[in-house]
Specification:
Length: 479
């Protein structure tokens, strides 16, 4: 029982689960990183178009990933309690919900031009962005279905295959980018369209690789038995947990999307610099996102076992680890900003100096939000593990849209700080979110599952609040 597991034991367990997830997330990030890197070498204006398209693509992907993320704590809890039927039910319905979402929102990618123009973006940049989305938009179908399988495998602590599958996908993407963007190895020079084709191919390859492993590697053919049959009870549970997760993701990523739109008002150079710095900051965020997923799995398993002390100790260790890594990122961003940004730019590009001048200042802003960005995503992972998603969603909306976006606009344009002001608004929004969400977990969600005697280190029977799922709760009904 993990109630007698030491903090060192929890640290070891988090690393065993989290390190492959970190590698997998970084490999997944490498797909968009490679697009940004190679398009930056190809043409700065084309890069600006990809940044614009990538914001919309990523925003809707994260919104739609709520159902996939919901599969993780549901499977972790059911598996820990020995309920294999529930594991299959929620995974199948996670695939259903993710597929329906992708098909419903595909037209947004295909006809995104008027949206970008309405948002005041430069017509040439919009044209490039639309060319990218007409191809890469189809990749969201495979990306969301693959996300469900990643959540399923992570909840079973089969993170190694997630890592190596994603690494292989990133390699495919990099090779296809090199060939199709620049026209190497006899391939046509397709520019932005080549990057889109590479992303689509790599996302599809990853999904089918994970699918093959689940069916033949794990022998889980029964996971897809009667997949055409709707399981309304399990579907509702996935939607009920996943929809607030999706809106929480949407609130956060739309804060960054809004900042990208505002940077676009300042011109192609500030937008390109914004995209590069955001890519660098996203690389470090992938580490915390992986640890957040590990926190979700560990918390979900503690719920399935009825293990309140394991929940508390695991939370302390995963947050502590995340904070140490965030401090390391702060040092990196402040000490070597030019070297990091310069990787994305052609040394002979005449606009390189302009992009660097804007980007170095933005790197300081990115360093400011490392700790709070890590804190908010760790709190979300722990809250999802105990299936507390509705109140965190409202907190995220307030932090990002009631506070963060207005702060970016006021500081950037009303007070005239331009790009620095826009990014300072990001810092403010993330700081508010981190404060609210950490308070929610440690002061409300965890005490709801841990009686006062357990909080002092004793073993006791947990209690529950209505807005936080009780430890040991599970799905009802069977197929």
């Amino acid at each position: 029982m993990s109630e007698v597991m030491s903090y060192r034991g929890h640290f070891r367990a988090i690393l065993l689960l989290g390190l492959p997830l970190i590698g997998g997330n970084l490999a997944q990030f490498a797909i968009t990183f490679t697009d940004t890197l190679m398009l930056g070498w190809y043409d700065v204006e084309v890069l600006a178009g990809q940044v614009l398209a990538g914001m919309l693509l990523f925003e809707l992907f994260l919104f739609g990933s709520g159902a996939a993320i919901a599969v993780m704590p549901l499977v972790a809890e059911a598996e820990a309690s020995g309920d294999d039927v529930q594991v299959r039910r929620v995974t199948r319905m996670g695939l259903w919900v993710s597929l329906v979402f992708a098909l419903l929102f595909l037209p947004v990618f295909l006809w995104s031009g008027p949206i970008f123009l309405w948002l005041g973006q430069e017509p040439k940049v919009v044209e490039v962005a639309v060319d990218y989305l007409w191809i890469a938009g189809y990749g969201v179908i495979f990306a969301l279905l693959g996300m469900v399988l990643k959540s399923y495998l992570s909840a079973l602590e089969r993170t190694g295959v997630v890592l190596w599958g994603t690494v292989a996908s990133a390699v495919v993407n990099a090779l296809a980018n090199y060939a199709l963007i620049f026209g190497h190895w006899g391939a046509p020079e397709m520019g932005i369209k080549g990057a889109a084709v590479a992303s689509l191919v790599s996302q599809a390859a990853l999904f089918f690789a994970l699918l093959g492993y689940v069916i033949w590697g794990l022998g889980q053919r029964s996971l897809f038995a009667r997949i055409w049959r709707a399981d309304w009870g399990a579907m509702w549970l996935v939607i009920r947990l996943g929809l607030p997760i999706g809106f929480t993701n949407l609130a956060e990523v739309s804060l960054f999307a809004a900042s990208g739109v505002m940077m676009g008002w300042l011109g192609a150079i500030p937008l390109a610099a914004h995209g590069i710095v955001l890519q660098i900051a996203s690389a470090t965020f992938m580490v915390h996102l992986a640890l957040s997923s590990a926190a979700t799995v560990r918390a979900g398993r503690a719920v399935g076992r009825g293990d309140p002390v394991g929940l508390r100790r695991g939370g302390v260790m995963v947050v502590s680890l995340s904070m140490v890594l965030a401090l390391m990122a702060v040092v990196l961003f402040v000490v070597w900003p030019e070297a990091l940004i310069g990787v994305f730019l052609d040394p002979h590009d005449p606009r390189r100096g302009e992009v660097l001048a804007v980007g170095v200042v933005l790197m300081v802003m990115a360093a400011l939000f490392q700790l709070v960005d890590a804190a908010q995503v760790m709190a979300l992972g722990l809250l999802r593990g105990v299936k507390d998603t509705k109140v965190p969603m409202l907190m995220a909306v307030v932090a990002y849209w009631v506070i963060g976006v207005p702060a970016s606009y006021v500081l950037g344009f009303v007070l005239g700080y331009e790009g620095v002001g826009v990014w300072l608004g990001l810092v403010i929004g993330l700081a508010v979110a981190a404060t609210l969400l950490m308070w929610r977990f440690w002061m409300r969600a965890m005490p709801a599952a841990l009686p006062e005697s357990v909080a002092r280190g004793e073993i006791d029977v947990p209690t529950a609040r209505e807005d936080v799922a009780p430890i040991g709760s599970n799905l009802t009904g069977r197929l």
